[in-house]
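Can't paste images in this forum, so I'm doing it all in text. The chain is below; anyone willing to post the predicted structure tokens underneath?
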Amino acid sequence: MQIGNLSLNLDFYKGEAPYSDGDIENTMLDMARRRLSYEQAIAENDSWPVVYHFSPVRKNLLDWYAFPAGCSVLEIGAGCGAVTGVLCEKAGRVVANELTKRRAEILANRHQDATNLEVIVGNLSDIEFNEQFDIVTLIGVLEYAKSFTDSERPYDDFLQSIWKLVKPGGKLLVAIENRYGLKYWSGAPEDHTSKFFDSIEGYVDGGVAQTFSRQELEDLLHANGFSDAYFYYPHPDYKMPLQIFCDDRLPSPGQIEEHVPQYDSRQQFLFREDAVWTGIVENGQYPFFANSFLVDCRARGEI
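Text version of the structure:
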């Protein structure tokens, strides 16, 4: 399928995946085909999926990151292309993999002028790559490994399959929610299961996804071929980041003033987050309670 400069590779596509935002994706595809600006899109439909997939704020996650000149990037779970444009601007070559054909079409229509982008539709486990990449990104993907990896150890096996795609010494960038993020303590439903306090309680009823604490995530990455994990903290979260902190530049008391965006209408506010953040920061506990992580780690030569 040809869209502008792009050719969608459908060789590994086996039909639509079970996840979707519903019929609104058809609306978004029409918007992408008409090449609407973000302002034009939300003027027509200001629903959360349109805001989330089209908002330019999404680019804040990586538009500051120092990509090596001319590097190759594999974007796994590229969605509707919210971050793909930044990757195309920063890298020499980008391969965007998306499981669903409809979202891949939205992505391709949005970025059809790119000359360094290839789009592959299908489950990563079915795709045959004949190369390794300088950088692989997992943005909002790792937590779903158990839903799309047929294994008794889905997170380990998924990361080991990713490790094989990264050049030795290359980078893996992982964006994911923190299971102990303050927003969950203050009354936000868990992002993936929509249950209150679900991640804090350890997902006792299971679910389609699982997030991790900072220590759990670092241990998981290290056990499966990745080292030198450096943590950034997108705030209020990686979905709509307005600030990026890191261990060398943690927030100062009073620097965090915003509630996390209210993505779910059932969200409660059990306390004033700005006041609680101040105490957390003063006591040096921001990394434990940060709502999201962006982890920059390196592929070892062997696992």
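The chain has a mean pLDDT of 94. The chain has two domains: 1-16+23-131, 174-303.
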